[in-house]
Structure formats: C-alpha cells, structure tokens
UniProtKB/TrEMBL annotation:
Its EC number is 2.1.1.-. Coiled coil: none annotated. It comes from Hohaiivirga grylli. It is an enzyme of class 2 (transferase). Keywords: Methyltransferase, Transferase. GO terms for molecular function: methyltransferase activity. Pfam families: Methyltransf_28. One of its GO terms (biological process) is methylation. It comes from the Bacteria. Gene3D superfamilies: 3.40.50.12710. The keyword Oxidoreductase does not apply. This is SAM-dependent methyltransferase.
Length: 364
C-alpha cells in the first residue's frame, strides 16, 4: 500500500503542483482521520489536557453568558474540534454548580475524525448528558440559543500563501524537487490582491480563506439563534507579512514538507479576519485578550489553591500546570494564546474580556 506522501507525489505528477492550501487540507484530513495526536505519545498537548481547571473555568464562564442571555431553558453547548472531549467533560462537571444552567445544556460536538470521536465517547461516557456528534456546523439544531467554544480549532484550517514576485502577488505552491521524489515550494501564476501596504520583493502573505468561510457560517448561525462563541488560539491581531506555517511531530518542530500526513500542520490565526466577519454579521466583538490574563480574571489561581489543599501530594503538579497556562513570557501559553469572543449580546461586557468598540483589534 502506498504511503500518504506517495499519494501526494502521484497527485502532483498527474496534475502538477498543488497550492499550500490544498496540501494542508489533504495532509490534515489524513492526519486527524488516522490517529489521536494528543498527549505524550502524540505530537502536541492542548490546554484542557494540561489542567482540568481550564475546562472548568470555560464552563463557568459560559454559565455567566447564559445568565446574561436571560437563562433560556434550552441552550446548545457546541465544541468545535473537541480533541479527546476533555474540555467539554470538565466544563459539564463545573456546570453542575449552576444547576439550572446544567439542566438547560444540550451537548453537540463537531468532529470529523473517527479516532477522536471514539476517544470523546470514552471521555464523556460517564456524563449524564446525551452527546450528539456532527461532521459540520450545518447539521446542528437551529431552534435554540447556542454557546460555541473553539480551542485550537482555527489554527488547523488550511491557508492560502502568496509571495511577491516581480512586483506581483503569486500563489505559493508545492511541487517536486529535481529528484522527482521530495517536495519543494514554488509559485503559481500571478493574482491580484488588495493590500494597504506595498510589500517588498519576496514578501509572503497568508490569507485564511477556509477560516473566513467557516467564521461566516458560525457568525450567521449566532446571529440567527443568538449566542456567543469563545475562540482560543495562538495568533496575532491584524494581517501581517510572514510565513507562520509549521509542523509538529512528537512534540518537535519538523520541516513542513516532510512527514506529509504524519505531522500536525498549523498556522497562526489572524484574529482581525475573524472579528471582521463577526462584526459584518452584526455581532459584538470582545477582545483580544491574552490567555494568561483571561484565566487569572476567571480565578484560575484561586481554583488551583483549592485543588492543592484537597490533594496536597499533587500540589506541585497542579501549580506547574497552571503556570504553564498563564505565564506571559514569549514562550508560554499565557502570552502566545489569545482570546476572542463574538456574541449576539450587544453592549454587554463579558467576563474577562472587554468589548471592542473601535473595530481594530489590539491585545490587552
């Protein structure tokens, strides 16, 4: 049986070079369909896997949002790309502190990977809540308010890359090297792109067409049904030049053209694109906020102290995990990860995130 790299190679031989966007899409579809990428035995670790407090605080944050919405008797809890289901499991456990909120929740997970669906079923098997799985947003119910959480979801959607060449933008592509075996980057024909600044020769721009399309569908659904989405990811405020495409394999960075379909491919999220789509749909925009500051305002340090007192033998591990989530030097998640919320609630301050009035995102 041919390897996935050989399948990509045959595709290029047959049809010519493929765009970076298509390469990412094909690789990620194969990657997530064939493995559990999380944890020490996988390629990366997410915040819910680091500490239970992360999911607990997200659950209680949404309980407050539910209250601001007028405490509807039925509300959809939706997680996009829920990994092993750990965040939702922790959020549901914490939601029991607000019994009416817990009772109102109807749980829906949007997941395409059969491997991860099985993991989610195992994680949530003891939950009192029925869980419904979906391939896409389109099959979600549309007859109730909706609460959406997306933790490290948009960074795994493919992007288009463009490079200036001879004063024109040309789409970056992937073809075969001279050995007719390994992959290399190249350029397609020129395309017209409108940017406010004139770039220098060789400058690279990423355009997240897939993320914009997904955010459009999400925003229209929020506007129609009412609700709030909380987006947590690593990225930057406004469009900027530069290549952020990266690959992780067994917790180490590797060449993005090696181990096709075996390594996790991601790019940094440009939150301005997502915020602009939401604002255009008539939603209010809150953020950006650093993850560390957001979690501190929600009481992560107080919760850590409570857990440490209840389990003193685990206190060091509890505090180390929390430090990893909130520390704000450039190498820690508290600084790298940003928080953006979009909501049908207008002129309402959401816990831990200021409303954005000027239309230009800044990190606070």
């Amino acid at each position: 049986m041919k390897s996935f790299s050989d399948q990509i190679r045959d595709l290029i031989i047959l049809n010519g070079p493929i765009s970076v966007e298509r390469y990412m899409g094909l690789c990620l579809e194969h990657y997530y369909a064939s493995r559990d990428p999380l944890g020490a035995a996988g390629d990366f670790t997410t915040a819910p896997e680091i500490s239970q407090i992360f999911g607990e605080l997200i659950g209680l944050w949404f309980a407050e949002i539910w209250s601001l919405m007028g405490a509807p008797q039925r509300v959809l809890w939706v997680e996009l790309g829920p990994g092993r289901g750990t965040l939702t499991a922790d959020a549901l456990r914490a939601s029991q502190l607000v019994p009416a909120f817990h009772e109102a929740l109807e749980v829906h997970l949007v997941e395409t990977s059969p491997v991860l669906r099985e993991k989610q079923q195992q994680t949530l098997g003891t939950s009192q809540k029925k869980v419904v799985w979906h391939e896409t947003l389109e099959s979600l119910p549309d007859d109730a308010p909706i609460l959406i959480v997306a933790n490290e979801f948009f960074d795994a959607l493919p992007v288009q890359q463009y490079v200036t060449d001879g004063g024109q933008w040309r789409q970056r592509c992937i073809g075969l090297a001279e050995d007719n075996h390994s992959f290399r980057f190249g350029l397609f024909k020129s395309e017209q792109i409108n940017m406010p600044l004139k770039p220098e020769e060789g400058q690279l721009l990423e355009y997240p067409a897939a993320s914009i399309s997904y955010m459009t569908d999400l925003s229209l659904r929020l506007k129609k049904q009412s609700g709030t989405a909380l987006l947590i990811d690593y990225g930057y405020a406004a469009p900027a030049y530069g290549d952020s495409l990266q690959a992780l394999y067994r917790h180490q960075f590797v060449d993005v053209l090696e181990r096709a379909g075996e390594a996790d491919l991601t790019t940094h999220v440009c939150f301005q694109y997502l915020a602009s789509v939401a604002r255009h749909a008539g939603l209010s925009v809150h953020g950006l906020a650093r993850q560390g500051e957001f979690l501190r305002q929600l009481g992560i340090e107080v919760r850590a102290s409570m857990l440490a007192k209840a389990a003193p033998d685990e206190a060091d591990n509890i505090y180390r995990a929390v430090e990893r989530l909130i520390e704000t030097d450039s190498q820690n998640m508290g600084e790298l990860f940003k928080i953006l919320a979009v909501s049908s609630l207008t002129n309402e301050e959401l816990p831990g995130i200021a409303i954005n009035q000027n239309g230009i995102l800044t990190i606070v």
